[in-house]
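Quick question: what would this complex look like in 3D?
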Amino acid sequence: MNAAVQAPTAPARVDTRRLARVLGPIAVLGGFAAVLAVVWGNPIPTWWNFHVASWIDDVEEWIILNRSTNWFFTWICDPISRVLTDLVQWSLDALDFLTWIGVIAAVVVIALRVSGWRAAATAGIAAFAIGGLGLWEPAMITVALMIVSVGIILLLGIPLGILFARKPVLERRSRVVLDAMQVLPAFCYLLPSILLFDIGYPPAVVATVVFALPAAIRLTSHGLRGVSDRLLEVGTAQGATARQSLWKIQLPVARPALLLGVNQTINLALGVVVIAALVGAEGLGQEVLNGLQTLNVGQAFDAGLAIVLVAVVLDRMTAGRSVRAARAFRRAQTSERIRAQLVIGLAVVAAAVVIGRIVWPDTFPSSIDFSLEHAVNDFVEWCRDNLRTGVPIIGGTAAISDFVVLHLLNPIRDFLVDHAWWQIVVGITALAWATAGRKVAVICAIALMIVAGLQGEGTDSGSIWIDTMDTLSQVLVAVVLSMIIALPVGVVAGLSERFYAVIRPLLDAMQVMPAFVYLVPVIALFNVGRVPGVIASVVYALPPGVRLTALGIRAVPAETLEAARSAGATRGQLLRKVQLPLARRSIMLGLNQTILMVLSVVIIAGLVGGGALGVDVVYGLTKSELGLGVEAGIAIVALAVVLDRITQGWAAGAPRVGTRRALPIGVALRPTLGTGFLDKMETA
Amino acid sequence: MNGKRRLVTGAMVLALALGLAACGSDDDDSGASPDTTAAGSGAKTFEGTITLAVNPWDGSAANANVAKIVLEKQGMTVNLKDIDENAVWPALDSGSIDANLEVWPSGHAKDFDNYITQKKSVVDGGLLGVTGQIGWYVPKFVIDEHPDFATWEGLKSDEAAEVFKTAETGDLGQFLLGDPSYVSYDADIIKNLDLPFKVVVGGSEATLITQLDNAIKDQTPLLFYFYNPQWKWADPEFKDAVVQVELPEITDECTQSAEGQGEDGKYACAYPPDELYKAISAKLETKNPAAFEFLQKFELTDEDQNTITASKNVDGLSIEEAAQKWVDENEATWQAWLS
């Protein structure tokens, strides 16, 4: 029998040290509860107020009044803004000069060089399809924005990542900041950044950089730290200086991880495209919004699909080869061949540009058209007519919607809202302590006390605390529903390679497709209110749950399975007793990622009737009540920190099996894992 | 090493891109403004380039396109910029957008105060001539069944709560709001008139319209916030399918409350009409006085704007074609803006 198969059974003996370990926390928590109940009391006292909202409002007003005179804006913000506009405009001019056929040729040539034949073919077809959707021009604006944003992110992220890898203390200290950058809805800083950088491309670039920079930093640092110590020692023994060690050993060895970082950064950056259109950045995001404005789902879907295709193109250009193919490729390379490839590549692109400028000087030919607009609109119409009511047994989506409100959302929200705020604080802290340890408990307590000290007027209930509890109840329901679907699908995908291959592109598309696109269909099916928000969150958050479950199942070593099989385990036993327990760590990470993804759609949920913090953010930022918006944003970050740390604690407590290198905890993989990030992480 | 080779390839691509960018930028069109047809309209010369905001609704696009067509006839270049109505203000402040021709005053009291009254970087460009009106609506089949629901007194009953209640509102009736940034006194109206309703924030205009389409289609009762002008009204079927609910007439107290954006919580009447106005960047006055004066004189009636949006939504023209059609047919109106 394999040792891992047996669950470790604890000795039943109770010793005093153990007793102290249980009683200690209980005493501390009891004291905490008593202090909160007596000193603070219920409801949250008015003096426990950080005055974030009024402070932010004052700052905003000061900025508005001094925007055109203060040196900070005229000497720092304005030049930055001008440079960013020029950079994007140059990229756009370059893409226009190449013409569509030249761009496609360049895409194919680069993908061929970096990632091989198959990737090149996929990238070429995807790029062509963008034109076929009739969205070539907006797509080029989006691509130009990507080129500039991702360039800046890598320029900042890679050096910072190297620094963090060398000084882990720095990384630990800045963790909250990096977390906040990733979790704070981009909405919260996109609109304010127009105060600093005017409208158009600059605020879009700034928002993208803020959002995707942490991932670039973390993946770089993670990749560098993955370089084995022994290798570094060999280097030092050979007399390598620190700089040589970095350039000659660490960076080359960490190359696959770094490429992955580039790849991830691109996918994350594409997540900001749609809301960037709100500040006049145009591109594919504008097309999505236009579709939404007139409830033309098909139009929004075409644009969403184009965003997915842009992601595919960029992914294939940066994905790199598989380990084996890369080795074979390197072996076949000689300096003459490289030179020849370069010349041929440039010649092909140049020829394409010449053809393009002669035959199609303006834009993609409109005669090539495979827009899905009408098909999608008909499909949505059909769903609305046939699925809302009158479906046998389940009664239709309208009935499901009511059921979820009455039997899931309401009881949980009532529970969270009806208890005194300090009971919730102490309760969550206790839960964190019991399941994830003392450190996590302290972090949770601090985060929740901060939320309690946000006393701006929530639009829905008049209190940020109550809105936070409302949002929390929606998040919990969405996470549970996601996991109920993700677990079985993930298990099947883990067991059947073929099934996984079929659903993988679907999972990719679900994550890159902007959630704005399914705003309307979701309301068309489910009555306005909290349910459409929950459904949108489930759709969005499903992929990491499925992926990580499948990954965990597949990571169980073959020898372990063989041993269990030879001991006479049936297939069912194998799954229940061996594979699922050993996949626990991976599944817990899946849960963690699901929660973070759900939190990142809180705003979208607010746009379809979810109310609570999502509406607070939208209302605050659009009504020039910046303070309220920022407070609600902070509350979202606090919720994320609490739920993230607790579930990470659960994952850390689970057995580490199969994966040679631990999955990068704390590397947030949202919101667009895009193209199989985790699968690559494994093979990297 | 492979990495180095990649670097070389990257550098080549970059060099190529930069080279192309340099070549591409000479067909830049911003500077040159051909002074062609300066349609003999007195001494004023229209030249140069201005940028107008297009907010995400048809009325706004109609105004901007009409202004663009008329000004370009005089030899100017007019750029249109799609942008959120709230993001317009900092852009008017900096001068990167020159004017927004349709501002709903009820939604932008704070912006008016900040930019027009205090900072004076944006100028109140006068009324657009179109009047907005917010109100409460129900589908017509509800009124057919319960004629008394057409007034607020009728809604003040347990029966109304029963008819309009949903899973989200429990025992109370649901009042559906759309975009949370639009001015809303509904919670106060409900409270002050003691109506058995609860406000549900739909979160966006798209949500509101989808839900009311559902309600009309499925014949489920719905009480909702809606407004005019709005592209939905161009659809005659929709026009016949909804009825406005009568709220108490506007009192002095309500007028006062509305001046303070309803923050006193005393609002209890029908919505005041919104006299839509134009906001113009103060910089335009010196940069392009002719255009500035033109935009101040620019005026459309409700009927003008509805004609344009209807030819888009009913006759299927693009908004540009619809605006062109109106310009072709109403020369007398726009000639007045040029003088």
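Answer marked as accepted. Chain A has a mean pLDDT of 84.
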